[in-house]
User: What shape does this take?
Amino acid sequence: MNTEEKVEGTRFKGDMVIWIVFFLLCIVSIIEVFSSSSGLASKSGNFLKPIMKHCWLLVVGVIAMICTMNIKCKYFKVITPFALLFSFIGLIAVLCLGETTNGSQRWLSLLGVQFQPSEIAKGALILATVQILSAMQTPNGADKRAMRYILIVCAFIIPLIMLENLSTAALLGLVVLLLMFIGKVPLAQLGKLLGAVMIVILFVLGMVMVVGKDKTAVAANDKNNMTEQVEKIKESSFDKIFHRADTWKSRMVHFLDHKQVAPEDVDINGKDMQTAHSKIAIVSSNLVGKGPGNSVERDFLPQAFSDFIYAIIIEETGIVGAFIVCFLYIILLFRTATIANRCVNTFPALLIMGFSLLLVIQAMFNMAVAVGLVPVTGQPLPLISKGGTSTIVNCVYIGVILSVSYSAKKKDEADKEDALETITE
Assistant: This one.
């Protein structure tokens, strides 16, 4: 039986490999979030409360995934303009009325429910990009005007995300660029775009280094000097645009500082807390780890259940567990590429590649942060980290992939239809 057909006697539709990967990631998520939420449990006074909330969100995510899965891929085109409009309004609203958590103003409350408009905006931009690329395909690739329209849409979404979440904006921009490459946008245009992007990145980094203040350096001065510097930042005309510059600069300076530090001089309770405890968790893991639930660093590592959950996975399951989790995302990407390659039409093929790249690249960012290959970005591990909006939205992305895997017209089906028509004639 083809793995993309509906399995008789069950309610599973779509590709069974995607289903298996999804359920395995959910199982890892439940185990590791339960293990790494000791800090939340101690604060709430209820050991089971954090994991029960997470399981409830996963249930909501699965329901959303099933609903999405049952939408035929051609109807996603209808959703695109509404998703873009909602995302744009939401991103504007979060800048004006958003709630601040951990120094970032990324959340809105609607009818008592808190959500991140940026998570919805990511999917909306992918939908728009894919629709433009598929609509403007020619025998020689995408029309030259396609990139112009994509950049116009990006201009309304990515800068608004960047103001509060630079890493998410960068990740989204990278996925859009890869989609344009897959969608056969002329290489000459992509080359010019890459050059322009590099100039913009250098400009933004330069402004961050000029406007931002290294928090670690400021902390070494006296309090009066720190207060004076903070006030100067607030008075700056760039305050509204670069109000997160202090955090960005501190992360970059700390990452680029390669000087040797003696173990006794590492400030594991201060500026080095996240990276230090993450490295301790990884180094102490050995080949097979300490076993699920036996993490030590979860009690010291901030965001152990979210941004740094991969470090806890390594500590508890060792190199073997780390490889398995990474391999699951690789399977997701390659299986999606196989499904996309079999699609007759461009839209469903690009659609699932866009969402798959979004999930997998974000996962690679998170893993790279945990092992110290890139600066701290604040990106959760998709389908594993504890989250709210991100958990549900990522499940929706899987629902889209499953929808395409069973509802989109495949090349072998088209060949069979052509053969039947030939025989009939």
Observations:
- The longest strand covers residues 104-110.
- The two ends are 30 Å apart (CA to CA).
- Residues 39 and 299 are 6 Å apart (CA to CA).
